[in-house]
Amino acid sequence: MTTTGNRLEGKVAIVTGAGATGSGEFVGIGQAISLLFARQGAKVLLVDRDEKNAEITLAQIKEEGGDATIFVGDVTNIDSCQEMTEAAVSAYGKLNVLVNNVGISGPGSVTDVAEDFWDTVIDVNLKSVMLTSKFAIPEMIKDGGGSIINLSSIVGLRAGGGRPSHAYAASKGGILGLSNSMAVHYGRDNIRVNCIAPGHVYSPMVARHSSDEMLNLRRRAGPLGFDGTAWDVAYAILFLASDEARWISGVTLPVDGGLLAATPLAMYPYLKDPE
Ligand SMILES: NC(=O)c1ccc[n+]([C@@H]2O[C@H](COP(=O)([O-])OP(=O)(O)OC[C@H]3O[C@@H](n4cnc5c(N)ncnc54)[C@H](O)[C@@H]3O)[C@@H](O)[C@H]2O)c1
């Protein structure tokens, strides 16, 4: 069932990485955020470098009667980032919410990662937050403030499982530090900056890149013992974007089925036997 409401009525939002990488209810996080925002009354600028992916999200929002516009661009490019804010303001007159959702990963520890791949991951995941915010914040200030939500990861707080991806871990940890500083230094402009740290979300990206054994382990690893979806992440972001969270800034909210609360030994009784 599709729930609609007015939790973001009157707000204009940019969501990066808003293109569909899945289908039906099995969607990527950016697509889930965009759909929920539109269902709750926001006007949404859907940013993605992949036009076809963005068209799919747009079509779904239009079908549901929502209001959205596509911006095809690259969050690592400063001109693109300036133009995306201009596009939101020109389409809808202002900007209130920015969700920095784009993120890429890939294998490599410090001893074997290629230098140019390291730079790419840091640019796409971390530098992009600076580039999009650089142009979004002045527009938010003009409208009396705003909300920025940055997608980190539990891997920004604890080493992740599977193959090491040190560039990913560094970028997601960097997002936490940057977000805290932004929260402090733009607080008096009534700009709130918060982070979401998703855990083992069963998303199209994860389904494409994980073995059945790894998917099973991801699901069982946390206290709740079932898969989170892109929708679970998107509902947390909806709250932080809305005025319901008007006094919440500078926090990192794990959306992880309780994973960060548990040490490996705490989970031992639940993992020692096969299901
Ligand atoms: N899926 C998980 O389990 C998980 C866990 C923790 C954190 N996260 C974070 O959540 C976010 C979304 O993850 P997802 O699994 O939905 O991703 P996804 O790969 O399904 O979607 C990412 C989207 O970003 C777009 N994109 C990539 N590079 C871009 C660029 N340079 N400019 C513009 N668009 C670009 C892609 O075209 C795609 O549509 C990421 O930041 C990811 O690190 C995901």
Write a brief caption for the model.
It contains 9 helices and 7 strands. With 275 residues, it is α/β, with parallel strands linked by helices. Helix 1 (29-39) links the parallel strand 1 and strand 2 (43-48).
Describe the structure.
By secondary structure, the chain is of the alpha/beta class. Helix content is 44%, strand content 14%. The protein is built from nine helices and seven strands. Strands 3-2-1-4-5-6-7 form a seven-stranded parallel beta sheet, with helices on both faces. Helix 1 (29-39) packs across helix 8.
Keyword list:
single chain, 275 residues, alpha/beta, Rossmann fold, 7-stranded parallel sheet, 9 helices, 7 strands, 14% strand, globular, binds nicotinamide-adenine-dinucleotide
Would you give the CATH topology? Rossmann fold
From the 3D coordinates, which CATH architecture would you assign? 3-Layer(aba) Sandwich
Shape: globular
Bound molecules: nicotinamide-adenine-dinucleotide
Q: Radius of gyration from the CA trace?
A: 18 Å
Question: Helical content, roughly?
Answer: 40-55%
Strand content: 5-15%
Read across the widest sheet, the strand sequence of neighbours is 3-2-1-4-5-6-7
| Name of the CATH homologous superfamily | NAD(P)-binding Rossmann-like Domain
Report the span from N to C terminus: 31 Å
User: Which residues form runs of ≥5 with pLDDT under 50?
Assistant: none
Task: Give the H and E element order.
Answer: EHEHEHEHEHEHHHEH
Total domain units: 1
